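ESCALATION

Customer reports they have been waiting on this structure for their group meeting. Please prioritize. Original submission:
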Amino acid sequence: MNTRAKLMEFGGWLEEKKAHSLTLIDLDGKHVLAEGVVIASASSARHARGLADFLLEKGKERNYEFLHLEGYQNGLWILLDFNEVLVNIMQAEQRELYRLEELFPEGETLAPHLLK
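Update from on-call: job pushed to the front of the queue and completed.
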């Protein structure tokens, strides 16, 4: 499965569980860190952990390689490393502070309406 399709799949799963302010960045061949980055906002720490749990479950069903999880306990910023795709689930305050979208200017931001 190509990076764009994976990004869309992760985005669809997050949307299904009511994540908001979804950003999908295709970095395929343009960055050494990852091939794609997903950034989503959660309404609470509990919501963030629920989103992370759901992604872990769906990723396992699809046999996606999963490497690491950070930030689960406090739920302010949860990072899930699915090898070529990094998923960031953040509270609004952390998202405003760190502005991750600005770290990947070479990437192509995919329009959320493509998920539908």
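Sent to customer with the following note: Residues 74 and 102 are 24 Å apart (CA to CA).
Escalation resolved.
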